[in-house]
Amino acid sequence: MSSNKKYWKSVEELENSSIVEALRNNEFVEEIPTEEFLGNADALAQSGTSRRDFLKYVGFSTAAVTLAACEGPVHKSIPYVLQPEQIIPGVADYYATTVFDGFDFANLLVKTREGRPIKIDNNTISGAKFSANARIHASILSLYDSMRLKEPKLDGKNSSWSAVDLKLKSSLADAKAKGGQVVLLTNTLASPSTEKLIGEFIAKNPNAKHVVYDAVSSSDALDAFETVYGERALVDYDFSKASLIVSVGADFLGDWQGGGYDAGYAQGRIPQNGKMSRHFQFESNMTLSGAAADKRVPMTPSDQKQALVLVYNIIAGASVPVSLDAKFKTEVTKAAQQLKAAGSKGVLVSGIDDKNAQLLVLAINQVLASEAFNTAGTRQIRKGSNAIVSQLIKDMNAGSVHTLIMSGINPVYTLADSASFVSGLKKVKTSVAFSLKEDETASVTTIAAPVPHYLEAWGDVMITKGTYSLTQPTIRPIFNTKQFQDVLLSLNGVAGSFYDYLKASSAGIIAGSSWNKVLHDGIFVLGSTVLSGGSVDYAAAANAVSKSKAAAGEFELVLYTKTGLGDGQQANNPWLQEFPDPITRVSWDNYVTVSNADAKKLGLTNEIVANGGLNGSYATITTADGVKLENVPVIVQPGQAIGTLGLAVGYGRKAALKEEMVVGLNAYAFYKNFNSVQSVSFAKANGVHEFACVQGQKTLMGRGDIIKETTLEIFNTRDAEFWNEQPMVSLDHEEVKATTVDLWESFDRSTGHHFNLSIDLNACTGCGACVIACHAENNVPVVGKAEVRRSRDMHWLRIDRYYSSESTFAGDNERKENIAGLSSSLSTFNEMEKPGDNPQVSFQPVMCQHCNHAPCETVCPVAATSHGREGQNHMAYNRCVGTRYCANNCPYKVRRFNWFLYNKNSEFDYHMNDDLGRMVLNPDVNVRSRGVMEKCSMCIQMTQATKLKAKNEGRPVADGEFQTACSNACSSGAMIFGDVNDTESKVAKLAADERSYHLLEHVGTKPNVVYHVKVRNT
């Protein structure tokens, strides 16, 4: 029976007051003067109105207050009038393309959402062999750079393309009439269609010529290869075919000859059937290649030349005199003898900037008949000639160059003798720079011509001979830009666009296929023939190298390119500036590296201060001809060869950069004669520099359950229990494996999916591509140098770098085991904090371990973090109140706390602070606000999308389909992601492998990230 009682809310309603009826129809009888009350802060502060009176005035309702203070912003959206057929809102589209910017190159798949490119993936189709490095992954953000050149400029003033066209045609006619030179100065193009177009331009203008300039030169290696094989190209080494690798000053896991060798290298580094490749590294700076080597010998560049001659003597049976210290001679002889024994399974590479030295490299590999030495599909990514570029600068200063058309280069910044180039530029009648930005060069030319980003442009590329790739736009040009090729077509008097020209010119290359298929695949393999070498006097080259000595000077300075910034093209990219260097773990800086022995002599120090930040000394570097860099920050680098210094180029840019991105000093000033080694004097300067370094610890301090290492000999001869020791705990007074003991009963995870991520420490090179890919996929914010220094970096994925305090990690463990007593323990562990002079190095990617028994979940007072059935540890951001208990309880320290709002905040003026930069954000991932914890989600949005795709297609998910951003980006195969409930999956087999282990297994967290014991072939 229903109740007939009357319920009322107020006395007025009970008394049938007239106001009740009014309120039923309109909650607010009068317009609420919220602006009057809340818009004037002074009036509000002086108001004597009580809270009760205020609420009564606005209609008895607290809703009025929330109307003014808490109303959400209104976002107006305009739906498609005619929706493009290929775009389905909420579903990603992928476009195959290829990037080559004169320095970096890769075969790519570009992910777009509603017409916006938001992420770079690797193209894994057959024939696509080059994967994206950290810089290419970050290049998606450079598309949305608000500092890009937005329209053409003529004499520094905004102009139009028609005016630019008219000016260029007039200048060309004037040059032809006066007999002046017309020079096209470009980066290496590696583009058949563009090179054909330039050839047609030169045919139309006989007074024109094409000069190729590479900011980081490979001219000596090119000259040597051209002398022997008659083609200006580089060898494309296949390290997967080498059982023994000897490198003399070549960081082939870094940027040496373009990089991209890590995938082949990693194939031979994973022990299979008891075998793996062996790697000797002779170098000055500590590099990625040196960190991965089985035997690393630090030596000066001048000693490296002698070492190369000694290897040549042993391999070729020559007897060229060698001047080398006895300790080095022993190590080099050992490597050379093993190389000779390896025969065709051996390979030697060298990064020495000397034509004769590069001739010896060719000679050694010819004698070995090295299978890894590939002369068929040669690399076309460097073509520059030092001599021709130097001659051009002389011609410019002589006034013989009338018109200079530049594309894809910034010589005012990258040339060592920049002043000479600028003075010559002033004598050129008309100069034009086709550039993404109004950089150092574009700002001093007659015409600054904006070009589209590669994701807005058409093109073709032949990275290696016999492999043809297309570049296609994934978005319409954002600004008023025009391709360099379209302008050339206009100058040639050819109607139509470069797209039409490209399609027509490609027809002769892709015979047997179709334009649409090649465009879809992104690549077409033609094949190429092996080049046969000519006759060269290698003995004379060996004698010339053996006579070279270190120039007079206290130190040999070795210039290099950093993993993050490369040649400096993307200096305005905050992802790359904040990316910690794999070796030093320093971000937002370039610095000079010096050995510990030399640092002690000069009084140079690094010190970790009370707040966890790293401080360091300043120094002044001076060359013999007076070029000086003052106040260069100093990093004392373990493994740096005594008597040498390391300094990265790519920093010190100022033009067209946000203030926050103006970082470091320009080391190109030392790149005299395009030689990466210079003799310098080095002295301490006053002051202390504050570094943003994300890793304070220097060693493992014997924590063998974090990085597990063994040798190939022990791996082959002892049981896994010896080299992959399982932690033991006491249960009922008996020693049992820690993994068999649980604090609570586990859920049944045998049904459905259960995700694991496998990380092989043997295959990981520390390249950092996974870190940037994680940034892009998960909208990870950039916090800037000051916050990184306070240990507030927001990286969801970090790559820890560990040094040994002895010469090997095995030596560390032996030293730890010999500790006797508490006092000895304290002193020994304190000493082990100091890395050795030539330590072994290990890299370990660490992200949320997605523990099945997660300690973070049990301490969250609001259940913001919880565990899913599929093994992923979830974060509900709108529940999180920022207690940070979870971070305190996490033994892996992988959780990040949002100290500030990084989105739309002028205090953090990076890409999230402007509308254009925010176009890169992934709409599938929430942009976190301040006051919450965030961490790796194991890319749950990607796993969900994969499941939905398979469900829609009515099929099970195939092995390899499940991916995370990091596993997708990993070109070396170190990271494998998948479903362990699929017993036939690769990740399930890896998880069951005898090399597998978990971080801190004795804690009992049951992680879903599996690591594999590192094996060294010492």
UniProtKB/TrEMBL annotation:
It holds the Pfam family Fer4_7. NCBIfam families: MoCo_extend_TAT. Residues 755-785, 839-870, 871-900 form the 4Fe-4S ferredoxin-type domain. InterPro entries: 4Fe4S_Fe-S-bd, TAT_var_transloc_signal_dom. It comes from the Bacteria. This is 4Fe-4S dicluster domain-containing protein.
